[in-house]
Amino acid sequence: MVQKLIELALKNRLIVLLLSGLLFAWGIYAVKQNPIDAIPDLSENQVIVFTEWMGRSPQVIEDQVTYPLVSNLQGIPKIKNIRGSSMFGMSFVYLIFEDNTDIYWARTRVMERLNFAQQLLPQGVSPSLGPDGTGVGHVFWYHLDAPKMDLGEQRALQDWYVKLALQTVSGVAEVASFGGFEKQYQLVIDPVKLQYYNVSLMDVMNKVKANNNDVGGRKFEMADMAYIIRGLGYIKNKEDIENIALTNYNGVPVRVKDIGSVQMGGDLRLGIFDVDGKGEVVGGIVVMRYNENANKVIEAVKAKMKEVEKGLPQGVHFKTSYDRSTLIQEAIESVKGTLLEEMIAVSIIVLIFLFHWRSALIILIQLPISVALGFILLQAFGISSNIMSLTGIALAIGVVVDDGIVMVENAYRHLSEAQTAKIQSSKKSAL
Questions:
Q1: Res 330: pLDDT
Q2: What's the angle, vertex CA 253, arms to CA 252 and CA 255, rounded to 5?
Q3: What is the pLDDT of residue 59?
Q4: Strands 90-97 and 172-178
Q5: What is d(CA 29, CA 378) in angstroms, rounded to the nearest whole number?
Q6: How large is the average pLDDT for residues 321-343?
Q7: How far is CA 168 from the centre of its chain?
Q8: What is the pLDDT of residue 431?
Q9: Torsion (CA) 318, 323, 326, 327 in degrees, nearest 10
Q10: What region does 169 belong to: left with phi over 0, alpha with psi -120 to 50, or beta?
Q11: Phi and psi for 54 in degrees, rounded to 5?
Q12: For the segment 335-366, what is each residue's pLDDT rounded down to a tens digit?
């Protein structure tokens, strides 16, 4: 069988060269299309359902949120396992699907089931899906270099400008903010004054919430002109909160400032982000979507950051905390370097021992085509190019080189023996 294949190839050299060129071009296309990353994605095919109900204990969260969700999400097709986790004020439900399930089909099925399961939850509690990213989707970290801004201002800049801009980049599932202080209006209530004016804490909450709103009216027509009536009531500063009326006491309105004080502060923090021990910073984590090309996503994020940086306040710049593209490029350069080194080494060896440049050319053609075939198979089976696969290709190059040298030397020896036998037979015929 092998002999017939060799004979067929020798008789159709042009076709063999044409097929080799097509395979090499196909391999180059596969290299460009195949998702490339540094870390192989071994995470499970999962969808995360996140529910927030602040102020409730883990037991209450478990009984009224996690258990109803887990019970009603079990009938989803192709689901393999469900894991629930309850903590103070938050619930997480992890739905593990079969490995061959399309992640976006799974997210659609989960969302459909949540529409019904939400009816079983307490009023005002709304579950939501987590980002469509994997466990190794944290491809890029950055922080703001803003020495003239405090941490609260930096966090506001990150949440309301930088984050929203970077989330528009193709392939980005989420930009998670970290560090700094999330600004909030804080009401410091005096319980003695609440009791004195006979006002409950729920009354304070409801009145403040009701007074932070715009109200729309109908049209008012006058002299062939139509006017839209609106009531503007959104809170713009802490003085507006202080002047909100809660109730009346002996005909005198009781305002928020009468039962406490209002101040600007930061939300409760569970940790900080420090860079090189020099102090706290504010930044974000870019999370990549499923089956995206990490290298292209990082390049697109960097290009977007250059545009966003033009709109930052004077003296504020981006600093990179973690960039996976560096590791990706090093892995690619390692394969390129190995391939080039092997091609040079085998050419020198063949030229020294055989003194035949065409034999060296055969191996030089064989190596890149073999690597191209490897990427074609990676693309066909949906396997990303990562450190594991690229290392395997780099190791396989050595095997291909050894095989090429052995085959060329063996063919060269058989040709030499055949020529020697032909010469000897010619001499015998002449005698």
A1: 84
A2: 140
A3: 93
A4: unpaired
A5: 12
A6: 82
A7: 13
A8: 59
A9: 170
A10: beta
A11: -65, 145
A12: 778 777 777 777 777 677 767 677 777 777 77
Closest CA to 363 of 373, 376, 349, 377: 349
346 contacts: CB under 8 Å, gap ≥ 6: 360, 363, 364, 367, 401, 404, 405
Segment 151-165 shows an average pLDDT of 92
**Domains of the chain, earliest start first:** 2-33+328-422 (1.20.1640.10), 43-130 (3.30.70.1430), 184-266 (3.30.2090.10)
| pTM of the entire predicted model | 0.77
Question: ∠ CA(283), CA(284), CA(287), 5° rounding?
Answer: 165
